[in-house]
């Protein structure tokens, strides 16, 4: 079925850029955010803001969600008068939120019963990737639903591998972000060692980036957001804490024993005072470099 109108629900750091990308690529985009204070920014980006969620859920040919938590996704999927009672066409939901596989599978089954579809399609690439349409998406769901959503997926991403059945996209996203959470801690501590031993983090990171200890954290995040002291990646520490918590819950459900990751999770959970949820998540590396052990 043809997709002309895309409804984007959740127009924050990621969703607004996705909506602008979809509009630029020729879709008619309508948007909704629960926070009315977002309206000015949304309209300034040329996106038509619809103040009633039900309106967006009933008018869109396809939907993109970019919401903080699994419970927000559930609230939108089950909104009264919305998708579950809509019968005029099959609507595919591309849920780009970082969510948990169990909730995703449950909501995908409910939407399927109502004649619709939900793909878990969490993303990597940050607000700049969303605004440029160069995200990496990791997609879970059926082949047929993937094919249905393909024009929307390809408009928003540089790559969007179909990873497996419903929930598979969430699994790989949590695996990825558990690594990011750990790398921020370990790279920060390695820079602490370098400074303590008399070599600046700036000098050390340049060499690490040509050697085997490098990662996206050392190659991208240190120069761009940490050593520059800008801390404006657009990803909040509170959202990273959610991802770490979801990864550890998945480990517990799956019977995977992850002792080092459990310690990393504890570090993220117990540093809320020094790195508040609203702070940029890259603060963690700086904290581990400068005073994390105090
Ligand atoms: P954000 O907080 O900037 O934006 C979320 C938006 O959703 C807010 O504007 C909020 O008002 C809105 N919202 C909350 N509940 C709602 C509801 N029930 N209905 C409608 N709108 C609602 O968060 P973000 O950084 O854009 O992240 C969105 C999702 O993408 C999260 O799941 C996050 O983990 C994930 N993510 C973020 C990044 C990043 O770099 N920021 C990268 C990859 C994945």
Automatic annotation (TrEMBL):
Residues 5-163 form the 6-phosphogluconate dehydrogenase NADP-binding domain. The keyword Ligase does not apply. InterPro entries: 6-PGluconate_DH-like_C_sf, 6PGD_dom2, 6PGDH_NADP-bd, HIBADH-like_NADP-bd, HIBADH-related, NAD(P)-bd_dom_sf. PANTHER family: 3-HYDROXYISOBUTYRATE DEHYDROGENASE, MITOCHONDRIAL, 3-HYDROXYISOBUTYRATE DEHYDROGENASE-RELATED. Residues 167-286 form the 3-hydroxyisobutyrate dehydrogenase-like NAD-binding domain. GO terms for molecular function: oxidoreductase activity. Keywords: NAD, Oxidoreductase. The lineage of its organism: Bacteria, Pseudomonadati, Pseudomonadota, Alphaproteobacteria, Hyphomicrobiales. The keyword RNA-binding does not apply. Its EC number is 1.1.-.-. This is NAD(P)-dependent oxidoreductase.
